[in-house]
Here is the input.
Amino acid sequence: MHPVCLPLSCEKVSVCAGVCLVLHIPLLALLKLILRKNNSGVWSTRHTSSQTNTFAHDTAPTTAASTATTALVISAAAIELQPPEPQAGNMAELSEFTYDPKTFSVTPAMKEAFKTNGYVIIRQVLNPEEMRKVNQMLESPEVQRHAYTTADEQMRQTRMVLWFKVGEDVAGCVASMNKIAGTIEQLMDGDEVYHFSTKILMKEANQSGSFLWHQDYGYFYNWGYMYPDCASIFLAVDDCTKANGCLEVLRGSHRMGRIHHEPAGKQLQADLERVEEAKKLHEHLYMEMKAGDILYFTGNLLHRSLPNTTNKRRWSYVIAYNQKHNRTYMGPEHPRYTPHAGFVPLKKVSDSALLECQKFSMDDQWFLKEDEDKARE
Ligand SMILES: O=C(O)CCC(=O)C(=O)O
Here is the structure.
């Protein structure tokens, strides 16, 4: 018997069963015509619930079809069909929080939002004074001389700098502060995390390429990491808007698991057929952010960003973390081995560390060179 028949009284069951048999295929279409979603995301009839019974009684069931309609309305009202998730907008809002230095902690609501949506955005994690220090470090010739370019599928270029070590300098503080490293560790809700890499992605004014649709685990997977137990934080160095190529995500897409990636330009791109299908199931969100806001997101969340079309730069600062147990099987003998692959414990520091830190120099840092970049392999 079709499930919509279940709660009907005995005399209606035979009518409905017959109708189900005859109309089995168009049944869902009929239901869609009869039902609509209300504001709280619950499916109901086109009338209010108090009107539902009146509707059933007032309609003279003169034909088999109208009898079926009446039966279906009664049964659907009784079942109260639920869509798989509440309204999209509300769920996205659930992932948005504001940092308060006095009271901040990772709450169950944040963990739940991270699990459901694949990300949380926390506004103003770094204050303007902290951001001044970050900018001073990023703009220093010592960092900038390590810049090279990545390119999208149209070979449009974006400058980037990438490094691996966590020093006792400004960059090291950012990577190991509790409000960043401690937060991502708690959101991932499991093993200890360590720093995998930090990079700055510099979309300059009126130029730059895109970052193609991908999952960060798409990269980690190629480097031999066995589990998607990695996550990243995206710190807005400049305000990020739709016009200057803010990050875009497909909310909840991490629940699809890893999808196939192929090289495109100098990047890896997720299988676009899958991405198109994913867009039908997962809300496409533009992560507009102010400088100092941080997006914490899981390794399998599909994301991308488009070129900067404005006359101001749009820089971002992305730190990748990996869980301690998540090892790569690609040891030194393997052609894809990356020497930074091993676990190095991350000693977390207090949230005041960045303001206290005076070391801008990264003289002992290990910066990635363009010819060492194995992103595409
Ligand atoms: O900075 C951006 O626009 C994109 C960065 C990104 O997608 C990544 O690092 O995985």
Remarks:
- The chain has two domains: 3-79, 88-372.
